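Collaboration report, partner site 2.

Our partner group contributed sequences for two proteins of shared interest, and the home lab folded both. The records are reproduced in the order in which they were received, starting with the first partner submission.
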Amino acid sequence: MSDIDASEIEMVRQSVRDFVRNRLVPLEDEIERTDDIDLDLLNKLKKEAVDLGFYGFNLPLEIGGPGLSATIQLAILEELTYTSVPLSEVLGYLPLSLTFCSGEQRSRIVDPILRAEKTVTYALTEPNAGSDLGGVRTRAQKVDGGWRLKGSKHFISHAETADYILVLAVTDDSALLKKKLTTFIVERKNPGIVGMTRYRKMGWRGYHLNGFTIDDCFVPDEDVLGEVGGGFLAMMASINHDRIFSACRSLGLASRGHQMACDYARERRAFGALLRDHQAIQMMVADNDVEIEAARALIHRAIALAEANDPEFRIAASRAKLYSSEMGCRVSDRVLQIFGGMGYMSELPVERFYRDARGFRIGEGTSEMQRIQIARNALAD
């Protein structure tokens, strides 16, 4: 990497760090208390991100994004994930499935999204089909001028406030998995989207997960995303990069907690000595330090493969996501233990780190699903 590249990355990193630490972190406590975020405030923050040139930072040039390198995107993610789960959405980490939009869809849908005037989410998960896309039961039937969708989705991020929902549905029961699924761009206000529910969660407060029913939902032909039967590829365009985002969230949470624990150990006294002088504390700090660095190395390795368009990126993303999410739980547990009773209290964000970390072992593909993919890759002929 040249010195110019390094200085550019550092400039971007510092800009994002300033925005996150000064504009977002001060909002965490109120969002945690209310389990909500004011939409007017959220829109204002997104507009600020647009003005800074970072909104939709992960989208390529051909769809109107900034076309940043994977290395610069990683620098942004590392700074962005210092803050809480709902606030880490402010810079607009958008579904790469949008790259399948037609020219007309880009001007009508993507351009307003990139101006932070509209929002989008995607809906894969169903009550009887979590990570198993072969179990998707939402169906789309061809009719004059479009399609009629019927089914249900759950655990969908921000579905209640999104303007558009990318819905995966079966369009050909007789085809193999990669040819049977199609992705549809469904407007949230479509009368076929009914029964919107917000789930109560263990953590991720302010980050809303919704369930809804799709009942006789008409979608015009012009709102098919990509090709009919190409839904699997459209959705997979997002999933591996989303796993890196999830891994970075685990890393950011663990790194922040670890630094807080080290600061606390340098100040708190117990049994006549600073915590940092007790060997039991030193062992926990050392384990946290090593695990955080190991997760960071796996993430950076995955990003290097993404930068090189290496097909091994898929498995590298699974490795990074698996290890980082498991690491986040172990590190947050040790951090809470170092803080003792104060760590268990809500006055500090330590107990939030502990609760939030657990969700990353489930979202974007469970740890078990990552292990299956990694093992299949290792055992392949």
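Second partner submission, folded after the first:
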Amino acid sequence: MTPSLHVPRPEDATRIAALLTPDPLAGALAGLFLAAPRRTGKTTFLRSDLIPHLEGRGFAVVYADLWSDRAADPAELIIARIKAALERHDGLISRLRRKSPVNRVGALGFSVSLKESGDWSGTIADALEDLIEATGKDLVVIIDEAQQAVETDAGLNAMFALKAARDAINQAPGDRHLYLLMTGSHRDKLSTLVQNRQAPFFGAGVRPFPPLGAAYVSAMAARVNDALAETAQLAPADLEAAFDTVGRRPELLTDCLRDLIFAPEGAGPAALRRIAAERKAQAEIDTLSEIAAMTPLQQGILRLMAQKGPGFQPFAEETREALKAAHRGQKPAVATIQTALNALRERGFVWRREHGRYILDNADIALALARSDTG
């Protein structure tokens, strides 16, 4: 195996970059929203493939990962990356500010001390406008796990600030543009940014994030075969099947391949199928073990959410009636349900879309519960 397991994805990077154009038919000037399940290679692709490709094509890029610090407010993470971009282009900002040295203040205003430019103060929109003018380049702002922004008022305000900046820059005279690219690990979560008139990007659509496909599977097959005996060689179709079994998660596939390499001599496709099935089963066992340690009411809420999906209404009379069996035969009070939901959020099982609306944090929870109930 080579020291790095990253498989470059130039075709996917090229396809996404082609959407960053002001062309009203082929472009995504209103914003590009891409969703795929957790741990399926989104962040690696953004950092290792897409950002270098965009910079190579002459874009300036600001990248913020809202999962990089789960304790920080999403707005703080976005502003921190914008500050870093201002610092990176300090010299260009300095020349720009000789023409316009006035500090600006407003909603979500922030300050940064630049070595050459001195103290800079302004809003998110001000900063992005300055970066575009100073660099003379179109700017792409990439927000990874963007759905986290709706969890705080400041984070949601940062999304509205990005929208305002997009509109101001793209509608102004000139040929420079601001493109927004947002990813999410849950389609329903990411949709909260676009799905109603109160959402910051109402009217935009959520598309599937480009999945790891045949090129990745073929490359991994070639790499693992270098470490396997002649009698244990794998075809790409063998890896494709194992990849599907583990939810198309590259880390889990890599773990399976490591186990295969150290399996007894002669292990081949059949052993890989067994290892992948065991990995999948163990992941479900781990999830169910966590659930089994919860209170009966918390378990009842999770099962009801798995059945209802996005239509789950936590405080409806029907819900309270359905939870009686999990609450000593009595309908739980609204406050009791809220306390249980808060605990589930803290444990990473439930995500709040907006006040009073909740969904399971990922689809694996519902699948594990369904299999346990039928098995």
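Feedback sent to the partner group on the second submission included the following. The chain has three domains: 10-208, 214-289, 294-374. The chain has a mean pLDDT of 90.
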